């Protein structure tokens, strides 16, 4: 047996909560074969969870909904990120967005403030996972990724085998954390079949608020509101990018998320800007969202500045 | 951004995406233009290229916005070399065996009454046609094949089935397909194909690619079972 195996730890998922799954950076370059993008719904929270653990930025982590309980047999550095949760370790409250490296073995319980939000639990460790199509991201529908590579989410009682590493203590200050408030509208780049929607319909789309329905999952978030009618339906199936806003004939928009199907034939009014997708991903049924239009150049500048802030903070500037 | 050549329209698909629409005398020509553009881009393989999503008459390009913007992609497309070195003008041809009328995949009663054809006539029409792969998507390895002879065109089921078996050969409108995995589905079923449509151990994982051609051939139940046992 190698040195590594001697240092292996078995982490026990005592309670998986509502849904826990292993994600990494997702699959790339495979959408033309029909494989979905997959990966973390809230990319910045996932990214920072790994950074706090001194991991590669696409290292596997656990994305979960609901309260999870994990038994840690010995000291292992870990971090929890997301919009808001109570992190209890052996009955002591611990902070989010910080490396937690000095805790002895015990029981970790994470209770999100709002049901339906997604949090990330990363460990400073290497995982012994077999990738499927270049990724360990779990896609239930495709039967790909996860612990056994068969697309199953984590079950309660699952043992995770990891090799812990040394890790410096880090934190992500509030101004670097993603902003989750829905008070600001989501920014939308008009595109695809935007011309198929009348001026009045576009005005309606950008002035009304929409409520998240209960039909929200990793494929898409269905909204409810005053119907956004499109004059035409004669569209051949075509590629769907992340954040695309599909409008079926009932006029209730569906925003396409990480596990979306690659092709679809509903008209699309445009796309939610990449940097606003995590904010939407963390909204829960009943929440209200509004939209505002932004041109491509402005949207790209906003995205580039956010990326630059990330790089500068990582470099300690 | 002005369209040029076979490209008839260019639209935004988010801050990291563009969708191009292609024209031609018919759908096959438009799809050929899509296929050639995909191959030329794959040959060039620019650093910013993240995803290509070819479909019937469109190509969605997803790029890395850290490395370029939509104008950079457009300029690259305008200068894209299209020659025999960068483009494979013919796709691969596949012959796929089908056990027509397999018990769990048999909508012939409905199809015969809808089309007014005999089962044998439907099978003849389905095996005589040479289909083109117009798009791969919806699920891993799911290839949209067309165009189905007009006499076979029939609408999707009013209520989709909760489960269509893996390998089911199906038709809807002017299209036909083989279900790569058991899944819900609303197409009319003709039979079962024993050839796997994708294999995660292979590269590429999907058997069929846009531009490939497919011809089906009828096999018996016994031949079907032999096919399955050989694997």
Automatic annotation (TrEMBL), chain A:
Give the top-rank taxon of the lineage listed in the UniProt record for this protein.
Bacteria
Question: Known Gene3D superfamilies for this protein?
Answer: Cyclophilin-like
Which key words tag this protein in UniProt?
ATP-binding, Hydrolase, Nucleotide-binding
Under the GO molecular function aspect, what terms does this record hold? Answer: ATP binding; hydrolase activity
* One Pfam family named in its UniProt record: CT_A_B
- Keyword Cell membrane applies: no
Per the database record, which ranges form the Carboxyltransferase domain? 32-310
List, alphabetically, the InterPro entries matched: CT_A_B (IPR003778), Cyclophilin-like_dom_sf (IPR029000), PxpC (IPR052708)
Presence of the UniProt keyword Magnesium in the record: no
Q: Which PANTHER family does its entry note?
A: 5-OXOPROLINASE SUBUNIT C, CARBOXYLTRANSFERASE DOMAIN-CONTAINING PROTEIN
Its name, as the record gives it, is Carboxylase
Specify the species.
Answer: Alteromonas aestuariivivens
Automatic annotation (TrEMBL), chain B:
Q: Which NCBIfam families match?
A: 5-oxoprolinase subunit PxpB
Source organism superkingdom: Bacteria
One annotated GO molecular function is:
ATP binding
Which residue numbers delimit the Carboxyltransferase domain?
8-208
| Species the sequence originates in | Alteromonas aestuariivivens
Q: Which UniProt keywords apply?
A: ATP-binding, Hydrolase, Nucleotide-binding
Q: Which Pfam families match?
A: CT_C_D
Where in the sequence is the signal peptide annotated? Answer: none
Q: Please give the name of this protein.
A: Allophanate hydrolase subunit 1
């Amino acid at each position: 047996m190698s040195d590594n195996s001697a240092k292996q730890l078995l982490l026990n998922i005592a309670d998986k909560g509502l849904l826990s799954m292993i994600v990494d950076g997702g699959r790339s370059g495979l959408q033309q074969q029909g494989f979905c993008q997959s990966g973390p719904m809230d990319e910045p929270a996932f990214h920072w969870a790994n950074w706090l653990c001194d991991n590669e930025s696409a290292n596997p982590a656990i994305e979960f909904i609901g309260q999870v309980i994990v038994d840690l047999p010995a000291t292992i550095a870990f971090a929890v990120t997301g919009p808001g949760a109570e992190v209890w370790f052996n009955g002591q409250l611990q902070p989010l967005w910080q490396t937690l490296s000095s805790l002895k073995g015990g029981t970790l319980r994470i209770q999100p403030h709002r049901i339906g939000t997604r949090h990330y639990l990363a460990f400073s460790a290497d995982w012994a996972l077999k990738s499927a199509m270049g990724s360990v991201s779990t896609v239930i529908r495709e039967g790909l990724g996860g612990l056994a590579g068969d697309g199953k989410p984590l079950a309660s009682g699952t043992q995770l085998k990891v090799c812990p590493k040394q890790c410096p203590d880090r934190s992500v200050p509030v101004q670097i954390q993603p902003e989750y408030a829905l008070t600001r509208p989501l920014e939308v780049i008009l595109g695809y079949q935007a011309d198929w929607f009348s001026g009045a319909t576009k005005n309606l789309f950008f002035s009304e608020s929409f409520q998240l329905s209960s039909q929200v999952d990793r494929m898409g978030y269905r909204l409810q509101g005053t119907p956004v009618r499109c004059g035409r339906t004669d569209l051949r199936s075509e590629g769907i990018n992340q954040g695309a806003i599909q409008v079926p004939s009932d006029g209730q928009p569906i925003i396409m998320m990480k596990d979306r199907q690659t092709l679809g034939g509903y008209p699309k009014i445009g796309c939610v800007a990449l940097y606003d997708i995590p904010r939407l991903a963390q909204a829960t049924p009943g929440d209200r969202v509004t939209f505002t239009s932004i041109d491509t150049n402005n949207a790209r500048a906003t995205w580039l500045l956010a990326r630059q802030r990330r790089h500068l903070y990582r470099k300690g500037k | 951004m002005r369209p040029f050549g076979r490209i008839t329209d260019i639209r935004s698909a988010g801050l990291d995406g563009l969708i191009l629409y292609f024209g031609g005398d018919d759908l096959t020509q438009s799809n050929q233009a899509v296929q050639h553009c995909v191959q030329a881009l794959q040959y060039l393989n620019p650093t910013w290229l993240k995803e290509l999503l070819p479909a019937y008459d469109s190509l969605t390009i997803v790029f890395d916005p850290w490395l370029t913007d939509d104008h950079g992609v457009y300029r690259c497309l305008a200068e894209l070399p299209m020659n025999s070195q960068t483009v494979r003008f013919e796709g691969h041809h596949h012959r796929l065996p089908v056990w027509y009328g397999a018990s769990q995949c048999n909508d012939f009663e409905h199809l015969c009454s809808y089309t007014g054809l005999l089962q044998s006539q439907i099978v003849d029409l389905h095996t005589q046609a040479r289909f083109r792969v117009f798009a791969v998507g919806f699920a891993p390895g799911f290839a949209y094949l067309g165009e189905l002879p007009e006499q076979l065109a029939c609408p999707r089921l009013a209520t989709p089935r909760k489960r269509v078996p893996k390998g089911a050969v199906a038709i809807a409108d002017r299209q036909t397909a083989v279900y790569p995995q058991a899944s819900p589905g609303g197409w009319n079923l003709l039979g079962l194909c024993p050839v796997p449509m994708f294999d995660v151990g292979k590269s590429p994982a999907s058997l069929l690619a846009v531009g490939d051609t497919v011809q089906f051939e009828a096999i018996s139940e016994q031949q079907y079972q032999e096919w399955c046992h050989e694997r």
